[in-house]
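User: Fold this one for me? It's LacI family transcriptional regulator.
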Amino acid sequence: MSSYKALTMNDIAKALNLSASTVSKALSDSYEISEKTKQLVNDYAKKNNYRPNLIAQSLKQGHSNSIGVVVSSVDNPFFSQIINGIESVAYDEGYNIIISQTHESYDLEVKNVNHLAHRSVDGMLVAISTETQNIDHLKKLQQHGLPIIFFDRVTDDMDTHKVTVENFKGAYDSTAYLVNLGYKRIAHITSADETSVMRERLAGYEKALTDKGLTVDQSLIKHCAGTGRDREKLREALNELFALPEPPDVIFSAFDKVTTVTLSLLHEMKKRVPQDVALLGFSNTILADILNPPLTSITQPGFEMGKEATRMLIHLIKDEHPLTKFETIVLPTELCVRDSCPGKK
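Assistant: Here's what I get for LacI family transcriptional regulator.
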């Protein structure tokens, strides 16, 4: 355990036989204090490596110039791109960010959100966990005046600004693209949790099949828990798909981690991509071009999402009048065609 103890204003006051109020005013360059006393206090503070208590100052002033960011995990390429976008705006505006990971746990989300609130952040940017059904912990903070904005995983249960992407359209257009390439048995691997993102992507997939005259086959839809973290659950889902009398000729994955883990598992299972089964998925991995084979993917503008959400949050923080009308920004996705889906011969 560290024995380090930071020097406080009270320590300075005691050492120099001054009041704590005099020391505080001297350090803040108050006109009430003589130049001689200011010099004495500042010289002592510098010599003894005094650092102001920023948290205490923020509580006193009512702001901390900090923004809390809640994501599932920073090792997700999509969320890391969002964080880069958040930083690009926050730092220019004089804000620091504090990042908190939920690892898709509702309990951890509640704990982390409350921790950020007690750190006196000026506002929060939140992508709710896949386990989260009840957002009372966020509603209470908003009711107490804390600005909160949702990004990516959003909810209709709270009025605030939201930034998301064209999940339905991205899934619809990609599924239609696969049908146009000649694929008929299109499997869809999605989450076991009912987030807005997964609902919209599943709906887009199903609507495209129907519009193209194909039947929605429930045996080709797999709901996997853990958003790709549970490799064995995903392996089990793939085994079930390939055990069907008519196995899939292409797999459409609904989210980033599952897409890349699926490709890895297909290699382990000695399934050739795309000869035995093609693969397309939502994925913002920067490695898509160099995977074996290069991955056809739906990319999302993560950096732009982070920038837009942060701009909106800072505007909320600075606005002295409470808003009653909120905006939802929906950003476009892009289908990046590579070698993992060449079409049926």
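One thing worth pointing out: The first helix runs from residue 9 to 16.
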